[in-house]
Each structure stands twice: as C-alpha cells, then as structure tokens.
Design brief:
about 375 residues, mainly alpha, Growth Hormone, Chain: A, 2 domains, 16 helices
C-alpha cells in the first residue's frame, strides 16, 4: 500500500468538487444563455443535462479503461479535458458547438468521478479510507454550495464568464501529475491471483447480488435529491417565498446537512455497519418527505430537508466504500463506474418520472407518495436483511 501525501489528498478533494460544478456553476445563467444563443428554455436546459447523460453512458467504458491502464492517467486526462471542454464556453457563441463541448465535459466528469473513487480505494485502507471517502462527500456538498454562487456572481457581467471556472481543471491536472502516485494496475493486482483473472463482471454480479443494494441506493437517492431540486421552488412558492436567494437557501440546506454529515463519516462508520447506515438513512428519507408533505410552517420544511441531507451524507460515502469492499481489486474501475451510471441515470429520470405524478396528484401528495415509497423500501430492506 503506497502512503499518499497531503498534496494527494488535496488533489482528490479538489477534483471531487468539479463533478458537482459541472452543471451547477452555469445554472444561475441558464436563462441568459438561452437568450444569448437564441434558443428555447427547453433547449437551454439541455446545456445542464447533456453532461449527466454522457456520464451515465460512458462510465462503464471508463471503468474498464481504469482497470486496464491504471487510475492515474485517466484522472489526469479527465482533468485536462474538463478544463478545455468546460472552459471553451468562454468563447463559443453557437448552440450546437456548446452542446458538443458539454458532451466532452460529460466524458471528462465520468473519468474524474470514477478515478477519484478508485484512487481512494487504492491509496487508503480501513478507517482512513472511510474518513477520506467522507471528506470526498463533504467536498461534493461544499462545491454544490460554492460554485453556484461563483457562477451567479460572474454571470452578472456576462453569461460567458461562469465558464472560466472550468479552467481550474488544468492546474489541478498539473498537481495530480505531481502528487498522485503511480499505483499497480488493477488488472495486475497480486491480491487477485489466478482466480481474479477468471472473473467477469457478470460472474461478480451473479456471485455478489448484494451489489445491487448500493447501486439501488445511488439510483433512488439521486431521484429523491432531484425531487427536492426540481420541486422545492414551487413548494416554497406556496408560502409566498419567491426570492431566488431564499429558494437557493432552502435547496442548499441539503448540501449543508449532507456535507456536515459526510465530514464525520469515518466516525459514523466506526460505530455502524453498512446495514445500519442504510436503515437509518431510509428512515430519515421517509420522515423527511412525509414531513415536507404535511409541513404547516417553512421552518418545518427546513427540518425535513435536513433529515434528507443527513441521510444522503451517510449514503454517498457508504456506496463507494461498500462496492469497493465487495469486489476484487482488479474490477474496482468497472464496478465503481456503475455508481455513476446509476446515480446520473437517477438524476436524469427524476423529473421524467415525478413531473407527471406532480401534475396528476399535486405537489404535497407527490411528496407524501415519495415518503411512503421510502417507508416501503425501508420495510423491504428490513425483510431482505432479516432485520
């Protein structure tokens, strides 16, 4: 086991914020971009979602690449591509070209997301691995708060300027080149032996069906997260809250609660098993959405969002550590890549699944149904794991 230095850790955590920044930094100027490019609001929204679709589609191939060539090169290449593809929006004035740059950005984020996960699994062990994975989750949450503020501030001058934030990928790539150690290729890892070479992705799924639990959590958690992001503005609008600042404050509460929880994930995991964390998180998700649906006061909605955020703060690092411990080292790239596949598919499908329900049931009933579904998942989990 190679002992990473502090610089390696900072590169990992800085890279983690970029995966969140990919869409959030330009979200505040979405309307201005649409007007500037002369496209409809629906077309403008594709600038936010295109990269997410590409992450989901490309992640398995990226995972295979990492297992074949090692994690360091894909991480550095992903950071360089991130800076160039994302930063190109500074100069692009054509919609089709900008969409193309977002496709490349999605590929780069897929490389960074999976590379970070495998890097942590390769460089750290035991309680230190849990601690760093939690810090990675906190970095994600902090990025979700900071980058929209930066994007909104720069967007006051021009809708092009928020794209300058993506250029930070270039100096981080340079630091990764200097600080991330060369580790053994996963495919050549001695811990796998001859048996590891005979494995296949299908055989791992067949022999370890419990893998579908962390993947399912990633999928469901992101559907729920985007339920809050998409529908919270309309919900608080019913309480006469229309200021974008206050709406953003409600949504950012998820990140604050999740980030604070992930920060202490090392201590949480030292006391709780994976199963216990899942039970607590599903309970918090259930309570949070049911409370949202019944909340007579705004402050109670805030409390409900905090419940959900705490659950997410425990689930996000748990998913990565759990998958990493379940699979052979030679398959870490491939098997952890499915985390991003399920996560970003959940983000993409969330409004598609939930918007028709909101139209037919109403907003408060929708949140109640979501809460009830979480209760069902909790009961199902208890039965499957025999309490």
């Amino acid at each position: 086991m190679i002992r990473p230095g502090k610089t390696s850790l900072w590169v990992i955590l800085a890279s983690a914020t970029l995966t969140v920044m990919a869409g959030s930094v330009i979200a505040p100027v979405l309307n201005q971009m649409g007007e500037g490019l002369g496209v409809t609001p629906g077309a403008a929204r594709l600038l936010i979602t295109t990269h997410g679709i590409m992450i989901a589609v490309c992640s398995p191939a990226i995972g295979l690449l990492i297992d074949k060539v090692g994690v360091r090169k894909p991480l550095i290449l992903g950071l360089i591509l991130y800076g160039l593809a994302g930063g190109s929006g500074l100069f692009i004035t054509n919609y089709a070209l900008l969409i193309s740059s977002r496709v490349l950005l999605g590929i780069s984020v897929a490389m960074i997301f999976t590379s970070i996960t495998v890097t942590i699994l390769n460089l750290y062990e035991g309680t230190q691995r849990n601690r760093v994975m939690g810090w990675r989750g906190s970095s994600n949450s902090v990025g979700g708060i900071i980058w929209p503020l930066i994007g909104g501030s720069l967007g006051m001058l021009s809708w092009h300027l928020p794209f300058v934030a993506y250029l930070i990928g270039l100096p981080i790539a340079f630091m990764a080149f200097l600080a991330i150690p060369v580790t053994q290729k996963s495919a050549d890892h001695p811990a796998n032996g001859a048996a590891g070479k005979k494995e296949s992705t299908f055989k791992i799924f067949k022999s370890t069906p419990i893998l579908f639990l962390p993947y399912g959590l990633a999928f469901v958690g992101n559907i729920l997260l985007y339920a809050i992001i998409v529908f919270m503005p309309k919900l608080v609008g019913q309480y006469n809250v229309t200021s974008s600042f206050y709406i953003g404050t409600f949504i950012s509460t998820v990140g604050l609660a999740g980030g604070a929880t992930s920060l202490f994930y090392g201590r949480i995991k030292a006391r709780l098993s994976f199963n216990s964390i899942v039970k607590i998180s599903l309970f918090l998700w259930s309570a949070g959405f049911i409370l949202i649906s019944q909340a007579p006061f705004l402050w109670l909605i805030s409390v409900s969002i905090i419940f959900f955020g705490i659950g997410m703060g425990m689930v996000i690092p748990t998913i990565s550590v759990w998958v990493g411990e379940l699979v052979p080292a030679s398959f870490r790239g491939r098997m952890t890549s499915y985390i991003s596949l399920f996560s970003y598919t959940g983000q993409f499908l969330s409004p598609i699944i939930l918007s028709p329900l909101e139209t037919s049931l109403g907003l408060t009933t929708l949140f109640l149904v979501i809460g009830g579904t979480c209760v069902f998942l909790l009961v199902l989990f208890l039965i499957l794991m025999r309490l």
